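Q: I'm writing up a methods section and want to include an example of the input and output format. Could you take the sequence below and give the corresponding predicted structure tokens, formatted cleanly so I can copy it straight into the document?
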Amino acid sequence: MLAIVDTGPIVAFFDRAERYHHWAVEHIEQLQAPLPVCEPVLVEAMFLLQEHSRVQDTLLEFVQDGEFSIAFRVDDHIRPLRDMMRKYRDVPMSLADACLVRMAEIHEGHAVLTLDSDFSIYRKHGRRPLTLIQPTAG
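A: Here is the clean output for your methods example:
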């Protein structure tokens, strides 16, 4: 399966103390590498893993080794990102979330691997729901 990866699953994958660690490991290992990410997702993940410098280094190693691929340039998509962030201002939508929705528009066959329920609200091309890979409620 092809999927774009959000911050939550990356952090859970690397941090054994995270609630969804086992879920993230299982799903990330099943996905076809390289896993597309955007730089805002990496920035968020590095921030959330700041207490774990070795883990941060391992995350960057995954990028270096091609397990994660930076597959999106923010500056190439400013207008649609701004439009999306305005549309979902009440949610609110982060830059990382906007990038992932835009990536899902570009990479039609990709799902979004996420822990964030806001992705059930967001729409591709303004009207189509995203294909999501999320833990089941409960």
